[in-house]
Amino acid sequence: MNNWTKYSVGYFKPPVCEHKWVFKDHVEKAPRWCSVDLRDGNQALIVPMSLDEKLAMFKALCDIGFKEIEVGFPAASETEFEFLRKLIDDDLIPEDVTVQVLTQSREHIIRKTFDSLVGAKKAVVHLYNSTSFAQRQQVFRMEKDEIKKIATDGAELIKEIAKEYPGTEFQYEYSPESFTGTEPEFALEVCNAVIDIWEPTPGSKVIINLPATVEMSMPHVFADQIEYMSENLHCRENVVVSLHPHNDRGTGVADAELGLLAGADRIEGTLFGNGERTGNVDIVTLAMNMFTHGVDPELDFSDMPAAVEMYEKYTGMVVEPRHPYSGSLVFAAFSGSHQDAIAKGMKWREETDPSRWTVPYLPIDPHDVGREYEADVIRINSQSGKGGVAYIIERDYGYVIPKAMRAEVGYMMKDISDKAHEELKPAEIFDVFEKKYINYFKPLDITEAYFSHFSSTKTESEDGFAVHMKVVIDGGEPKEYDGRGNGRLDAVANALKKTDYKFNYKFVTYSEHAISQESNSKAAAYICIEDEVGRQFWGVGTQADIILASVNALVSALNRMNDVNHFIK
Questions:
Q1: Which residue ranges form the domains of the chain, and what is each CATH number?
Q2: How confident is the model at residue 338 (pLDDT cuts 50, 70, 90)?
């Protein structure tokens, strides 16, 4: 990596900057959004979109809420010309949406651009030329005055030619392409010259678009450049400062956010950041970042899965699983500590204030973008913990695993996932839980149990329960046993002592609950027993009657103990 020595800083800091943006902590309102998916995004695709795909995506962008959409470079491509004509001729542009078209500063291109817009009610005509030091030196081999003249000649042509098309309300936009590689003083000089020609008014504002055509600096330097431009542009009150960040350094979103703090009013970008090289700024992430700060982004991503599906269908691109807010895994928690915190946070929210979202590890409520807790939040693999497994079993199947039991069940699932090298789905988790713990009736099974209460008016010791039950061992013939005890389970335990097998254990804990609130709901009981050397065994029983559920839980625990002790031969 010694080749780093051939690189040097290619950006220019502004001559003065007060760093006012530093004292703002978040973007307080949505900018004007302009989607460039159909231009910048489309030209970056391996296989550009067809006419039908463009039409479908244009409608989808309108449905999301974009009010400005750059539809192409109609003078440079017959396909883009036809697409724009289709939108206009078939009246497919909503009343509140403005289309934007791109043009270079050449007369025949500008004239064809205006021809493509005949019949449009509103349009933004976007003029650009490169102003960067590297392009002036290496590509155009021109001096600053010559570059500036390209911009001003184009601005004058647009202003004059627009008069020939009185049926359309035009707004003008100028971009000093490669702004980030241009000396800020020169960029300001060119932009002000264009502004002076277009003479903006409150009712006819000019857009000055400052593109990070190539990201060259850290975001705070870009913010300084934007603040300098915003503070020194002519007719600033009638100028819309727009940003068009690319993502070469991976900080396009940060550039846009700090640029908005520094005075910008508008953002050009694409869904999920599609674009040349590393892409344009990701408008989905920008909008959702505002959303998480309690700011209305004025774009609708309430059905994020549909937006992802639409994008992938029409572009052939893929939204990565970890893509912010939209990827398939962005709400997934595999870590045990994360799962435990999320489960507790969700419960705390339900118990306290459901109107506020402060759940640990989840910056937004998945429901707000059309995702489901059930499928997306807590996922189980070899890294997961007891809390996540218990959460899934309770959420999907209604079993509230006792706290003391969770570690054992959690480690069991982790071990299975680790050996299989696979994530465990909820159904797989419950299948294991059910087979290992619930109504585990082999080799011991109590097929019938009838309880009666007995008491004495003379002594408390003569108060308890009697049981008459049928016991089956390892599929043999049922045998009948009776027992008495101070409680139903004590009575069952005493009856079992009359069998031919040594049931040497003690009770550790017991709990129960209804699995659902319905009239025909089942009850679940949980029992932990301990053998003579201190090993603990859990059993779970279910039945419509809670007493019989507890009997089933005891039988399950005894059979689990037998799997280790083998006291039933």
A1: 29-315 (3.20.20.70), 336-434 (no CATH), 444-565 (3.30.160.270)
A2: confident
